[in-house]
Specification:
Layout lengths: L3 H11 L7 E5 L3 H4 L1 H7 L4 E3 L4 H13 L3 E7 H7 L1 H9 L5 E6 L17 H6 L5 E3 L4 H13 L4 E5 L20 E4 L4 E5 L2 H14 L5 E5 L2 E3 L3 H11 L2 E8 L4 H12 L4 E6 L9 H7 L4 H12 L3
Parallel strand pairs: 1-2, 1-3, 3-4, 4-6, 5-6, 8-9, 8-11, 11-12
Antiparallel strand pairs: 5-10, 7-9
Length: 309
Amino acid sequence: MKAPRDVFGETITAISDDYPNLVVLCADLAAATKAGVFAVQHPEKYLNVGICEQNMMSVAAGLASEGFIVCASTFAVFAAGRAFDQVRQSIAFDSYNVKIAATHPGLAVGADGAIHQCLEDIALMRSIPNMTVLCPSDEISTAEAVKTALQTPGPVYIRIGRAELPKLYTTPFRFEVGRSYVLREGRDITLAACGIMTYRALLLADKLAQKNIFCEVLDCSSIKPFDTKTLIQSAKKTGCVMTVEDHSRFGGLGSCVAEVLAEQYPVPLKIIGTNDCFGESGDRETLFDAYGFGFDDLTAQVEALIKKK
């Protein structure tokens, strides 16, 4: 069990020597985002801009315009929300080489409450032209997503979880932009998930197998660009799709999947996410149960969806 945010700090530090022009920026959250690990090892390539995320994105754009690769780290609610204008106007417009490492997304933040539980960041970032959006699901995919982001030209938004998660992948593993991964094959329904909900989808598949419902589980860790081919192949096999994400049901993974299926292969679809609401303070599992991510609720949704085939 390891938190993706810990992996981010370790990975960006470990590969720094491979990128002499890499600069890491932080908005006074180094201990939480784990950018502090980098700061200790490479103080000459690190800058804390203070609690001013908008300025951080503008500084990132300026450095990138001079040939630096910039990694800007802060919480998702600040990276996507507070600094949206600077990300759009200063970074994405000119497709600058800035990698936004956004930690602490979704209800999984737990006790930090509604103002920190960003449930809109995927929707905001995938709407920006030139922006790549990644949402890795465990420590190995997070490490590889960070490495891939540094190798990918232009702006990249990486949604990095706070909660500890078990390994879903084994090394060697290569994270590919624009690819989803089939973690479990099935015949009755496709469960498409990202981030922390990928592991939850696998647990749900285990529970449903006891009821002779066999789920195909997709880790849709590249939100933009999206792997249309893998989704359609799975939908053709199973005949229905349910998406699960720690994000609003509007504009995130579910919307992305709906767009693909509506245009290319319509099948019954259920989007599981938060319903046009903010979060609240509480234990993570208690919040998941309260907002429709409990296993009893998810099982009922799967059974209802399969009947629509």
